[in-house]
């Protein structure tokens, strides 16, 4: 489905980003794998991806820093020849009730999740505009749609990503660039591993499909949005949440 395509995935060393990298590689895309810190997990993932017969380029950088984002995109194009699909996946949480939330916890979540997305989109846009094609997939969250007590910083960043997605979808549609957002619900990764078991159990019973999601559930939608199957879809926010937020 993605043979001949080049995809850049931010924050790709674990969780949802890793699942997307594997799914894209299984479908033939060459992968630029953004990471912050070199470690054994990264080396193992690179080997795993290379076994699928595609080119893999690890690109170090912090998406919250504009110069890093510019360099990440530049190294991708220099190393793999072009950029067809950008997946803005890197994200962090720093939860707390608003009354106790520190300014730096608000700023760092906004800077990584929202500004990080802006940074890489800005860096990738000129390349995709020249190509007159591209797919941008931004990972938002259901809490960007419905909010969540204790996550005002994170919800604001994820709601911001939805506004950003819709605006740039309008700006870039005429250039053959599709921009969509995925809103995952409760997906089992390191990010949600830290939550109390009681909360996970109560989530499970309240979700219409009666189970938590896996990173691969999100990767399946990313594959569709990264492929030509989604050519007439832009500016959409699609939930992968077991029915949690259905209207
Ligand atoms: P993880 O915490 O498992 O992984 C996050 C990844 O992002 C890590 O690879 C991390 O790198 C990377 N990262 C964080 N900050 C930066 C940065 N500034 N620059 C580059 N990379 C960075 O999270 P998930 O896989 O669960 O989440 C992936 C995305 O999905 C996030 O945007 C998250 O908000 C979103 N999401 C997740 C949900 C869930 O239930 N899990 C639900 C809804 C949305 P490092 O290893 O260096 O920390």
Automatic annotation (TrEMBL):
Pathway: Lipid metabolism; fatty acid biosynthesis. SMART domains: PKS_KR. It holds the Pfam family adh_short_C2. This is 3-oxoacyl-[acyl-carrier-protein] reductase. Keywords: Fatty acid biosynthesis, Fatty acid metabolism, Lipid biosynthesis, Lipid metabolism, NADP, Oxidoreductase, Steroid metabolism. InterPro entries: 3oxo_ACP_reduc (IPR011284), KR_dom (IPR057326), NAD(P)-bd_dom_sf (IPR036291), Sc_DH/Rdtase_CS (IPR020904), SDR (IPR050259), SDR_fam (IPR002347). It catalyses: a (3R)-hydroxyacyl-[ACP] + NADP(+) = a 3-oxoacyl-[ACP] + NADPH + H(+). It is an enzyme of class 1 (oxidoreductase). Signal peptide: none annotated. NCBIfam families: 3oxo_ACP_reduc, PRK05653.1-3, PRK07231.1, PRK12826.1-2. GO terms for biological process: fatty acid biosynthetic process; steroid metabolic process. One of its GO terms (molecular function) is NAD binding. The keyword Transport does not apply. Catalyzes the NADPH-dependent reduction of beta-ketoacyl-ACP substrates to beta-hydroxyacyl-ACP products, the first reductive step in the elongation cycle of fatty acid biosynthesis. Its EC number is 1.1.1.100.
């Amino acid at each position: 489905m993605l043979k001949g395509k080049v995809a850049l995935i931010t924050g790709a060393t674990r969780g949802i980003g890793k699942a997307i990298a594997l799914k894209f590689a299984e479908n033939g895309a060459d992968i630029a794998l953004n990471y912050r810190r070199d470690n054994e997990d990264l080396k193992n993932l690179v080997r795993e991806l290379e076994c699928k017969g595609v080119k893999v380029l690890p690109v170090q950088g912090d998406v919250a820093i504009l110069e890093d984002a510019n360099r990440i995109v530049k190294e991708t194009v220099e190393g793999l020849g072009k950029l067809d699909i950008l997946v803005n996946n890197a994200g962090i949480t720093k939860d707390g009730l608003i009354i106790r939330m520190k300014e730096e916890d608000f700023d760092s979540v906004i800077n990584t999740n929202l500004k990080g997305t802006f940074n890489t989109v800005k860096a990738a846009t000129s390349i995709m505009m020249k190509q007159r094609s591209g797919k941008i997939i931004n990972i938002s969250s259901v809490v960007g749609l419905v909010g969540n007590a204790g996550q005002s910083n994170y919800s604001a960043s994820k709601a911001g990503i939805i506004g950003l997605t819709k605006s740039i979808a309008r700006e870039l549609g005429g250039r053959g660039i599709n921009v969509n957002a995925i809103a995952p619900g409760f997906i089992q990764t390191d990010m949600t591993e830290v939550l109390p078991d009681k909360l996970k159990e109560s989530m499970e019973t309240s979700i219409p499909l009666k189970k938590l999601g896996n990173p691969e559930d999100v990767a399946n939608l990313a594959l569709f949005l990264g492929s030509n199957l989604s050519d007439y879809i832009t500016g959409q926010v699609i939930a992968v949440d077991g029915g949690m937020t259905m209207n």
